């Protein structure tokens, strides 16, 4: 009887030891963060800072050397085309030879020729604008019947907007050429040396406002001295210098989201031009970067009335967009050999899956195969998580 009791105690001790050993060797469940795989819209964007600027700005400069009278206009004051913006009293003319007078006469003739070219370019731009409008109307009429695709219609709308901007730029070029002709005639007048020098009144070449007053007080200025910068504040564009590796993804016509401009909602724009030449820029950390200027137009100029020249904004150029894609957080992806993989949270177990990834942005990635919408994946998986390992999702 005593021996039987001892055997039972021995068996109970052995069983307890086995249980304790099993508990000690039982794999620990790792706490993990999980996120759902969803189906929805995915945008791939190129993000960077941008700066607003007046599209066409004009510098009023002194045509000849002389004494500039005080400029009373303040930055922000409106001006109309032909308004007097500055007055210059030319210096007394010196005795000039025939060659100098001939040069002044040639400058006037060159300015007249430039004005003629500008007028011809404006006429040509008007013809192209009218043709683009006609093509757009014709394609809009055919669009409901399905003869014209949405892409072709959008292309015609872009061409019509570009033709409008080309005509506007041509009109500004005519105004600038007229101002250059006036300045050349003023120089020719001063080189004649006949009679006392008359005061020269400088006029605004465009309707707009004063952007900058480069000279304020009365002073003697040399020829060509910049005095005022004029422009139309309602005609704004955005220039953003993108890294060249990002600029290669951007094309004219890509939609743009304009954020961090001071308003509650993002404004919308469209890429008008990607400049063909890059330039070197030193970053704040002292790193040399190759940058490319990308020019963006506002879709609705009225929305940008709160902005001015030289305002900072953030632009997000949409280079790809999908409306119904399976997407997962990019933080759940990791490399498994030469393929992408994720850990799927299957109850209390982690299941390793290889996936095929499509487009990606900074937060989400398109999943072409491997997981389905509705499943949950582990985000920021650690090296301790293994296939079929025990997990405990955090609440």
Which helices and strands occur, and which strands form pairs?
Layout: H1 2-25, E1 30-36, E2 38-54, E3 57-61, E4 66-68, E5 78-79, E6 84-90, H2 98-142, H3 150-191, E7 200-203, E8 208-213, E9 219-221, E10 226-231, E11 236-243, H4 244-247, E12 255-259, E13 267-282, E14 288-298, E15 312-329, E16 334-336, E17 339-346, E18 349-360, E19 364-369, E20 376-379, E21 391-393
Parallel strand pairs: 1-21
Antiparallel strand pairs: 1-20, 2-11, 2-15, 3-10, 4-6, 4-9, 5-8, 6-7, 8-10, 11-14, 12-13, 12-15, 13-14, 15-19, 16-17, 17-18, 18-19
Helix pairs in contact: 2-3
Task: Walk me through the structure.
α2 packs antiparallel against α3 (150-191). The strands form 4 sheets. This protein has a 6-stranded antiparallel β-barrel with strand order 2-11-14-13-12-15. Strands 3-10-8-5 form a 4-stranded antiparallel beta sheet, with no helix packed on it. The model has no long low-confidence stretch (mean pLDDT 85). It contains 4 helices and 21 strands. The protein has 3 domains: 30-42 and 323-393, conserved putative lor/sdh protein from methanococcus maripaludis s2 fold; 45-53 and 234-320, Elongation Factor Tu (Ef-tu), domain 3 (Beta Barrel), CATH 2.40.30; 58-231, RNA polymerase II/Efflux pump adaptor protein, barrel-sandwich hybrid domain (OB fold (Dihydrolipoamide Acetyltransferase, E2P), Beta Barrel), CATH 2.40.50.100. The protein is of the alpha+beta class and 395 residues long.
Q: Roughly how many Å apart are the termini? A: 56 Å
Tell me the name of the CATH homologous superfamily of the largest domain: RNA polymerase II/Efflux pump adaptor protein, barrel-sandwich hybrid domain
Number of strands: 21
CATH architecture of the largest domain: Beta Barrel
Which word captures the global form?
elongated
Assembly of the depicted chains: single chain
Number of discrete helical segments:
4
Structural class, from secondary structure content?
A: alpha+beta
Order of helices and strands: HEEEEEEHHEEEEEHEEEEEEEEEE
